[in-house]
């Protein structure tokens, strides 16, 4: 905590000296608090740094795989949040209405003329006790804590079925933000960041 206070002080000093804008200082502070576990945090690992054209037509689908553990995310929540993140950066985006197998998703992606299929799933989801209702239901001290989850993504070219990229997104909540949160509440921002990375844009 002492190092965090010193870091905030240094950010303030740089801002006052004109070397750093207020927005830069806010982003730096948010990053440090996230890295320290106070705010939500995510880490995305891609297999390739490939970029796609901004006018690419992307079809988004989610597998029916249920993640192990006691968490039960909404069946199509990854596809829904991916669509919300991608539609801001790609004007031609559609998503499946319900979870699909990979072959079914590829058939539908081709039928609508999509250039790419983005196929995702929740590989792991840990929904810890984060409010009074969950405590009443579970009453387990070892279940108190911060939610976390892992999403796996495949980006496939529909014309060739070539796998052009895979990604693993690991998310966890923060000590200041875990109340009432669930693993699916942590995925919107990293999915939007993944969309930007496909265009070669840096995180905002």
TrEMBL record:
Domain of life: Bacteria
Lineage, uppermost ranks: Bacteria, Pseudomonadati, Pseudomonadota, Gammaproteobacteria, Pseudomonadales
One Pfam family of this chain: DUF4823
InterPro entries: DUF4823
PROSITE patterns in UniProt: PROKAR_LIPOPROTEIN
Alphabetic keyword roster: Signal
Name of this protein: DUF4823 domain-containing protein
Signal peptide, first to last residue: 1-17
